[in-house]
Structures are given as structure tokens and as C-alpha cells.
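Table S2 (continued). Query chain:
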Amino acid sequence: MDIIRSKAREFFINDGFLPFKNSSYPLLQKYNHCSLLQESNITMFVTWQDTYLGLYKIINNCLCSVFFLEGRDIYWTIHRPEETSYPLQPIIDSLCVLCKKAGLPSLQIKNIDKDLVAGYKAVQGHALHTTYSVSNSEYAYAVKDLLNLEGSINYYKRKRINKFISKQDISIRPITNSNVRQCLDIEKEWCKGRDCSYCSSFYGCEKKVLEVMLEIFDEKVHCGLFMYNGEKPDGYIICERISKKLSFLYFGKSNVEGGLVYLIYIMYRDYINDAEYMNLNEDMGHEGLRKFKRLLSPYELWHKYTVTYEL
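Corresponding output:
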């Protein structure tokens, strides 16, 4: 970490900001409903803690988080427990003062839902500008579309799902607190023969991140499935239903071609069929991941907005 970023991080720690840790998750989980975007999600902050290097502090009953990813500007997210009850003005004012004291040139708020941008632009007394990137948008799927197998648009999905439905030796079993660590065995098998340096070049080693997810996994909160091929677990998926509108797919792997498509279908047919959308996050510029997400089912791209306040 460069000197400026290191000094800024030290300043915020001295001001009472805390690092995201496994133990943070139960305390902060109540803020998980505050965004439609997976990149602005408490589970992501905790599981990717070694990459994000995030710090947080509760200010005016709102969760204010600052992140220090290598190669990126220092940026913030804000989670308000009730959008209309906690005005942004005093929070932005406070954070601008803190950023100035930390030697930062601006206060950058990232991963803002489209519907919330107007509230950030309405803050008075600060010069600001707003941006978003189409390439970093998140893939969102209406659950009704995920479950639809009809027509040419669903050919890729239908072909893979029907292959697994017809197999007698394929079975689905729930992930529980007692068996969740079997996910790591599947992940390790998936990693064999892949280029670790290429895979980890996007955000870091997902296998290490999964280990954190397994530590915080709670079958009362998360919904996970194994796909067994005979008596061998050959795929897994971990999701969370956030609200009637939204669910997130956090992790999923299959060592059988097409298995992840089947797991997604079964998850939303039988377990999370009361959520309107599944958010599958961005493609990170990964061509293979982009192809998978675009062929999976009809989708929407949810833009992530950034509002920057000059100091």
C-alpha cells in the first residue's frame, strides 16, 4: 500500500473505524437490505475483507465504510437503515471533514443504486460530479425468466437443465452448518488445472474468500445446495434472499459442465421462488464469465453510480 493510502487508513483507524472481520457480520447484517447491488453488500465486505481492506463506523445510525483496494481510488459506501428517516446531508458533511483531515482530495461514494442517486446529488454545499460505467454493471435476472425454459432465447439454459433432469444419479441436497465445508472440496477440485495467477488477478483468490463464507454461513440466513453425482458432491451454490424483490448468488461452482446452470434453476424453482430478482454481480471483464452470464437467461444490467464530492 502506498504512503498516502497507508496514512489515510491509519487516520481512520485512529478515529474509531474498525476493519471488517468475520465477527463483524452478525452485527452489520441488518444493513444488508440497503442496496440492490451486490458490490454494496455486507456479505461481500466481510468475505472479501483481505482484498477490500475496508473499515467501517456507525455515524448517525448509518453504516459508513471506506475501502482501500490496490490500484483504485479510496472510496466509500453508505448504508442507511431507513432511507427516508436518515438524511444524507449531515453524513456527507461529516465524511467530507474526515476525508479532508485524512489528506484526501475528495469524498467518493461508490456503488449507489440508480434510484438513490438523486438524494446524493441533492446534498448542498459541496461541488460534485456523478459517473457510472456500463462495463461494471451487475447482472440481474427476474426469477420468472430464470424458471422459463421455453423458446430459442432459453436454448442454452434448457439444454443444460434437461441433461441433468434426465440423469438418475444426480441429486440435490441442502447445505447445512454441519456439511458446509464440503464446498471447499468442490472448489479445490475446480481449481486444479487452472491458472491461479490469472484467476486471482481480478480480485484475489476466491478459494480463500470462500473459506470466510464457510465461517459465517448460517443456514437460517443463507440458502445453499449441493449437487451430488452418485455419492460424490460435484457442485454447490450459496445464495441469500434479501427481500421480496431481491436475492444474491454469492458463490457457485460445478465440476460437471452445465452443473451450475442446473443448480441455479433448482435453487430458484424450489427454494427461493418468492424473490423477484437474482443478482449475479458483474463479469469483472472476464470473457468466460461474461458469456456465461449473458447466455444464462434474459437479464438486466443494474448500473453502479459514483458520486464524488470535491473538498
